[in-house]
Structure formats: C-alpha cells, structure tokens
Amino acid sequence: MNTFHIIELLLLGIGSGFLAGLLGIGGGMVLVPFLTFMFSLQGVDSELAVKMAIATSMAVIIFTSISSVRAHHKRGAVRWDIVRKLAPGIVIGSMIGSVGVFSVLKGAYLAIFFGVFVAFSATQMFLDKKPPPTRQMPGTGGQLLAGGVIGFFSGLVGAGGGFISVPFMAWCNIAIHTAVATSAALGFPIAVANVAGYIVSGMSVTGLPAGAFGYISLPALGLIAAASVFTAPLGAKAAHNLPVKKLKRVFAGMLYALAIYMFLKGINA
User: Fold this and answer.
1) pLDDT in the model for residue 134
2) 168-226 pLDDT, tens per residue?
3) Cβ neighbours for 256, distance < 8 A, ≥ 6 positions apart
4) Can you give the residue range of the structural domain that contains 10?
5) For the chain, what percent of residues have pLDDT higher than 90?
C-alpha cells in the first residue's frame, strides 16, 4: 500500500466518520462505492472487490458507532428503550444476511442491489415526508420484526442501518435528532453481528488479497477507523446545531451519484 492509498483511506475515514455522527448512517453508503473503486484499482477481482468493500465498511461502523453514540448520549438524545427492542431482531437479521445470503450472491448483484437501495434512501431523505401525528412506534413484536429487516438489509449493503432506521423512526414520529442518535446506537449491534458473519463466510474464499481477514481488509479498516473515530463526535455535535433537513437534501444528491456508480458497476460486471 503506497502513500497515496494511505492518504485516500484516511480522508475516507474523516468524511465517513463525520457523516456517521451527523446523519446516523454509519458512513457505509459513502465508503462502499469508494472502497469498491479502490480495491478494483489495486487488482482485486470486481466481484470480490464489492464484497470486500461492503464487509470492510461494516467493520468500520463498529468504531464510528461507539464514537458517535457517546456524543449523542451525553446530550440525552438516544432512545435506549427503542435500541433494546430493535437489537434482538437486528442481530438475527444481520446473521441471516451476512452468513447466508451475502455469501451466495454474486458481487454484481450486490452492487446493483446497493445502488437501488441507496437511491431509495436518497429519495426518502430528499422528500422528507411527514407522518400522520397519531402514528407511534409499534409494539415489541413489531420492533423485533423491524429490527430483523434493518439488520438483514444492512448486511447486504454494508451500511449501519440508518438508511432504514432513521426514516422508520421518523415515520413513527420520533424527532429527527433523536432518530439519528438512536440509529447511531443501533449501528453497533448491526456491525458486530454482520462482521462476524463476513469473517465466517469469507474464510473459505480463495483469491483474497494480502491483509484480508475473511472479506474484511484489515489495512483499510485500520486507517479508516483511526480517522473516523475523531470526526464522528464532531458530526454528532453538528447534528444538534446545523439545519439537518437542508443537509440531508444536499447529501441525497451525492447519494444519487454514488448509487448510479454502483448500479453501473454491477451491470458491467
């Protein structure tokens, strides 16, 4: 790994960490396209590059979630009651996604799925639809099911679940700042469960580059995580002071571009 690649990964860590704290998205929607591009340039097979990008992105979320949730918790913004009810379903859904479906799907299909899902998430961010004032969070069973869906799809796209959990909580009339903070806390069980699955499912894969542990690139993980843990608290602080609605629309525009890249990557593969 040359100096240029090291600088690239550190910059990715700075940006993704800030976004993780600001929007509660875990940074995965930004990391996966860029890591896919970088791994491909380094000679990794395009199919494997997509899977490694998704797995490495998810591993980074372990660190950014801890860093950002501490900042949100200090402000009393995390709904721990929601975290406790969603977490069991998240772990189950994550393991099904990362050990089962992820290991058998081709990287091209994952890239297409990622592109479509990120475009959907960007549209939700841009429209910022308001739910009826009477809508509330579902009961324990409903939250268990919702957690399973969040964990499953997070495992397929390498994101911390904020692209589903933040709109879901906002749809249930949870204030946006609270939804972002709670999503950051949910990122930890999502990441731990999925990373375990990526390691198990990737151990028997041939053709992995040097420094890979299962589907995870340890050099990329180390550099991105080292930078992101410093900027995640800054993003969390900014989330309570900046016009998040306007920022979400700007970010949605960037997500559309990344979604198109991943979709074309999958089609070409």
Assistant:
1) 62
2) 887 788 887 788 788 888 888 888 888 998 898 888 888 888 889 999 999 999 999 88
3) 119, 122
4) 3-268
5) 10
Residue 149 has pLDDT above 80, yes or no: yes
How many domains does the chain contain in total?
Answer: 1
Query: So what's the pLDDT on residue 79?
Result: 92
SS3 letters for the chain? CCHHHHHHHHHHHHHHHHHHHHHCCCCHHHHHHHHHHHHHHCCCCHHHHHHHHHHHHHHHHHHHHHHHHHHHHHCCCCCHHHHHHHHHHHHHHHHHHHHHHHHHCCHHHHHHHHHHHHHHHHHHHHHCCCCCCCCCCCCHHHHHHHHHHHHHHHHHHCCCCHHHHHHHHHHCCCCHHHHHHHHHHHHHHHHHHHHHHHHHHHCCCCCCCCCEECCEEHHHHHHHHHHHHHHHHHHHHHHCCCCHHHHHHHHHHHHHHHHHHHHHHHHHC
